[in-house]
TrEMBL record:
Nuf2 DHR10-like domain sequence ranges: 264-377
Domain Kinetochore protein Nuf2 N-terminal: from-to ranges: 15-142
Keywords of the record: Cell cycle, Cell division, Centromere, Chromosome, Coiled coil, Mitosis, Nucleus
Pfam families per record: Nuf2, Nuf2_DHR10-like
Protein name: Uncharacterized protein
UniProt-listed InterPro entries: Kinetochore_Nuf2_N, Nuf2_DHR10-like, Nuf2_N_sf
GO cellular component, one term: Ndc80 complex
GO BP: any one term: cell division
Protein family according to the UniProt entry: Belongs to the NUF2 family.
Main location: nucleus
Coiled-coil regions listed in the entry: 151-280
Compartments where found: Chromosome, Centromere; Nucleus
Length: 459
């Protein structure tokens, strides 16, 4: 049995003010709760159940359909769910409602508060729920302040992202302009590069040809030098022979004269060959000089080609850098797209946060004004209660005596009610057992009837 209001203060500590009927109606009307004056004076189970469902939907976001589904899930495990349907729903509803009432300070809520509601218990429970609701609303400012700080941080982050986005856009524009300029330069320089490449290949071929000619001329020059050396050696031998002949003139002048003539002829032939060799040497020397000059020109061409190869390497490096810049530009474009998406997301979040902040501010202002009004009303009620307490202190002794008598009467009623409840539970168990027995018998009878119907009739 639920203790009377006089016993509640001694059984547990009440951490919230128990409001009277006008204050309850005023507060619930400001909140939007569908509480009527008749609900406080003559509470009905259906109306009280609807009120509790409204509070659970408001504070716990738990709908009546969710509770019904949970109760149906429990009923599926029983053999005769129709018998326990209403009791199961009330039990699940009580468990769900205690999730709201226990944080509110009500720890003694039972099914009797739903099936047999009393005005004093209803005021007690609604006062706890309303106090918890206002406490949660006041605590909302603590949640609002971090939200405001987060909005400030988001605004700063938005400004930083906008600046970074602008820098990236400027950089992309510079890279795009530089890329277009490089493309124009590359397009203008590409024909000249192709011509230089062809000229380089032709010069290399000419260098190879002249190198072969130069090697052949060197071989000819060496052959001529060897021939000159041989001729000089023969000339020396001839001089020696002439000296010998001069010594032999006295002994055999005629024989010597014939030999001198032969040697003179041979000398003339050698002189002619030597003159031809000198002509060839001069021609070869002129060719060597021409080849030397041509070699110098080829060396200058090689230097020019080396410079061109350096320019080609620079162009290749420029092409590589251009490719890297293009890849970097594509990455920057992808980052720009990501930043645009992020900025749009942040803008939506900021817009939603601003709207939520505006709603919260308006709500807090309304709650603050309502709280101020309630505070003034409570101060007036407190002053009236103090005056009333002074008058009621004189009657307290009489009321205590009457309360003791009423308490004894309630205890007697409680004992008799417990006896009746025990009898009702025993009767319910007997009825349940009889229903189970009847269902078993009925099933057996149906089985026997089915068996008889299955047999062929005897004629």
């Amino acid at each position: 049995m639920v203790p009377a209001p006089a016993m509640q203060s001694s059984a547990q500590i009440v951490t919230f003010p128990v409001l009277d009927a006008p204050a309850l109606l005023t507060d619930t009307a400001s909140i939007g709760c569908p509480l009527q004056p008749d609900d406080l004076s003559h509470p009905q189970p259906a109306r009280i159940l609807a009120l509790y469902e409204w509070w659970m939907s408001r504070l716990l976001q738990l709908q009546a359909e969710d509770i019904k589904r949970a109760a149906e899930a429990q009923l599926d495990q029983l053999e005769h769910p129709e018998i326990y349907r209403e009791a199961m729903y009330l039990g699940v509803f009580t468990i769900a409602l205690n999730q709201l009432l226990i944080p509110s300070g009500v720890h003694d809520f039972t099914v009797r508060d739903l099936t047999l509601p009393r005005p004093d218990r209803l005021r007690y429970i609604l006062s706890a729920v309303i106090n918890f609701y206002f406490f949660a609303e006041e605590q909302g400012e603590r949640v609002l302040r971090p939200l405001q700080d987060e909005m400030t941080e988001l605004a700063q982050e938005e400004v930083a992202l906008i600046e970074e986005n602008q820098k990236l856009r400027d950089r992309i524009e510079e890279e795009t302009a530089r890329r277009l300029e490089n493309q124009a330069k590359m397009a203008a320089y590409r024909p000249e590069e192709e011509r230089n490449t062809e000229m380089m290949k032709a010069a290399h071929r000419a260098i190879d040809d002249h190198g072969a000619q130069k090697r052949a001329l060197k071989l000819d020059c060496e052959e001529l030098r060897r021939r000159l050396t041989d001729l000089q050696q023969e000339n020396s031998n001839i001089d020696l022979a002439i000296m010998d002949l001069r010594g032999q003139i006295i002994s055999s002048p005629e024989k010597l004269r014939g030999k001198i003539d032969e040697m003179q002829d041979q000398l003339n032939r050698e002189k002619e060959m030597f003159q031809e060799t000198e002509v060839k040497e001069r021609q070869t020397q002129s060719k060597i000089n021409a080849l030397t000059q041509y070699s110098q020109e080829l060396n200058s061409c090689i230097r020019i080609l080396d410079d061109w190869s350096v320019d080609v390497d620079k162009l290749r490096d420029a092409e590589l850098r251009l490719g890297e810049h293009e890849d970097h530009l594509r990455n920057l474009e992808a980052e720009q797209s990501d930043l645009k998406d992020r900025i749009e997301l942040l803008e939506r979040r900021i817009s939603n946060g601003r709207e939520e902040l505006t709603r919260m501010k308006d709500k807090m202002e309304r709650k603050r004004e309502a709280a101020k009004g309630r505070k003034r009303d409570l101060e007036l009620q407190h002053a009236a209660s103090v005056e009333e307490k002074r008058h009621l202190d004189d009657e307290a002794f009489k009321k205590n005596l009457e309360a003791q008598a009423v308490e004894q009467h309630i205890r007697d009623m409680y004992a008799s009610l417990n006896t009746e409840l025990d009898k009702g539970e025993k009767a319910f168990k007997r009825i349940k057992e009889q229903i189970t027995l009847y269902s078993i018998r009925l099933n057996k009878a149906l089985d026997s009837i089915n068996e008889l119907n299955a047999l062929d009739p005897e004629l």
